[in-house]
Specification:
5 strands, 40% helix
Length: 134
């Protein structure tokens, strides 16, 4: 007997720029059951507690606390949450720091379309019934 389907996939977009939050929401809207966004690390931690998203996209440069610190808190409180860094900044050292802070994946804002196949694969991983159309 196969495991029951999850039927939901929820995501949280965290970025201090409204235009980027809008763009990320547009990219993810057809992949998520419910999609929320916020502009700060503190809000992200609070929303994760209330909403329990499967996925959080996290900018690294936020006004109240940096994305690395927010990811460390989210990872410690909600280890099942998948964290994807989405940032303009790139480089091997930054990627290593993000992974050490709890990121599962790292996407440059110059390559945002990479987010779609990543999320599609993650949904299938979390709910294998989707793979067979169940």
């Amino acid at each position: 007997m196969s495991a029951p389907s999850r039927k939901t996939f929820n995501a949280l977009v965290v970025d201090d720029h409204r235009d980027m939050r809008t763009l990320l929401r547009e990219l993810l809207q057809n992949l998520c059951s419910e999609l929320r966004d916020c502009a700060s690390g503190e809000q992200a931690i609070q929303v994760c507690g209330e909403f329990r998203p499967d996925l959080v996209t996290m900018d690294l440069q936020l006004h109240d606390m940096d994305g690395m610190a927010a990811m460390r808190v989210i990872r410690s409180l909600y280890p099942e949450c998948h964290l994807v860094v989405v940032t303009h900044y790139d480089g091997h050292t930054l990627r290593q720091r993000a992974l050490a802070a709890g990121a599962d994946h790292f996407i440059s804002k110059d390559a945002l379309l990479e987010l779609v196949p990543y999320v599609t694969a993650l949904r299938t991983q979390l709910d294998p019934a989707r793979q067979t159309g169940g």
